[in-house]
Design goal:
CATH architecture of the largest domain: 3-Layer(aba) Sandwich
Oligomer: single chain
Helix content: 40-55%
Shape: globular
Order of helices and strands: HHEHEEHEHEHEHHEHEHEHHE
Number of helices: 12
Largest sheet: 7 strands, mixed
Radius of gyration: 19 Å
Distance between the termini: 19 Å
CATH topology of the largest domain: Rossmann fold
Strand order of the largest sheet: 5-4-6-7-8-9-10
Strand content: 15-25%
Length: about 290
């Protein structure tokens, strides 16, 4: 749902920049819905179409495009840390054919864990779900463990490979007395967000999520960058590329604005009372 909103914003910004679909621009949307195995064929199709620019959403997608073409300009709507993952050489001068916007999901782990402990003061154990298909997982796990040590919270690292494993993973989390839930990034988990937030509610786990789609699906909280703004900026990058700018010379941006969204319905469902001090800091409260 939120991705559709972000794509709508992307199209709106293009129209503001005088790009009208059906007149002077054609958009060929492709959705991979968290199925990493379909990405190579999807990207190959876009390369065969000889697109003037490819816009990607997520780390897995931009890496698939990076492997498929060194000539077609690529604009990232968002990704994991693009420098750390070797997607670009440098933020100021990315080099190659890729530019756009990079996320800092791993670096936000500590802030998310702090917020989770604020709303659940007795928090001692947090289940951490992750999928190895996301190349950013290694850095995310390290950042989260470091933050957990500082906050005296124990992390239960739970790998999920297939959708049918979710039930068992949550059972394992409860058996090991988890009280909270955090997620790694990536398209696989996001594609199954409705199932994840349902299981979190069923097992009375306080969850904080890496993007707002999870709150839209009924999750408790999210602390993340403003991707609506990022998609508007992505449209502006496309404009620059279509006007002749080289991706290698367009600095890659890191997010500057982060929002906290809280779902009071989800809190009520698991019997959690969100402190006023946290509610006052929220950018949006769902009632």
């Amino acid at each position: 749902m939120r991705l559709l909103i972000e794509l709508k914003v992307f199209r709106e910004r293009l129209r503001e920049l005088a790009y009208i679909e059906g007149q002077n621009i054609t958009i060929e949307p492709r959705y991979w819905e968290g199925k990493i195995e379909v990405l190579p064929n999807t990207v190959a199709e876009l390369v065969r179409l000889k697109c003037d620019v490819i816009v990607t959403t997520g780390t897995e997608a931009v890496l698939a495009v990076k492997n498929a073409t060194k000539t077609i300009p690529v604009v990232m709507g968002f990704s994991g840390d693009a420098v750390t993952l070797g997607i670009i050489a440098d933020l100021a001068r990315p080099g190659g054919n890729i530019t756009g916007l990079t996320s800092i999901n791993s670096e936000l782990s500590g802030k998310r864990l702090e917020l989770l402990k604020e709303v659940h003061p007795r928090l001692a154990r947090v289940a951490l779900l992750w999928n190895p298909g996301n190349p950013n997982t290694e850095y995310f796990l390290k950042e989260t463990e470091s933050a957990a040590n500082a906050l005296q919270v124990r992390i239960q690292s739970l790998e999920v490979l297939k959708p049918e494993e979710f039930e068992g993973v949550f059972h394992d989390a409860i058996t090991r007395r988890a009280q909270g839930l955090m997620l790694g990034g990536g398209g696989f988990l996001s594609a199954h967000r409705k199932r994840i937030v349902e299981l979190a509610a069923k097992n009375r786990l306080a969850g904080i999520y890496p993007n707002f789609q999870y709150v839209d699906a009924g999750g408790l909280m999210a602390y993340a960058e403003d991707r609506t703004y990022m998609f508007r900026r992505a449209a502006e990058y496309v404009d620059k590329v279509l006007k002749g700018a080289k991706p290698a010379d367009l600095p890659v941006e890191r997010p500057k604005k982060f929002d906290l969204v809280i779902n009071l319905n989800a809190a009520k469902q698991i019997g959690l009372n969100i402190p006023q001090s946290v509610l006052y800091r929220a950018d949006k409260v769902v009632k």
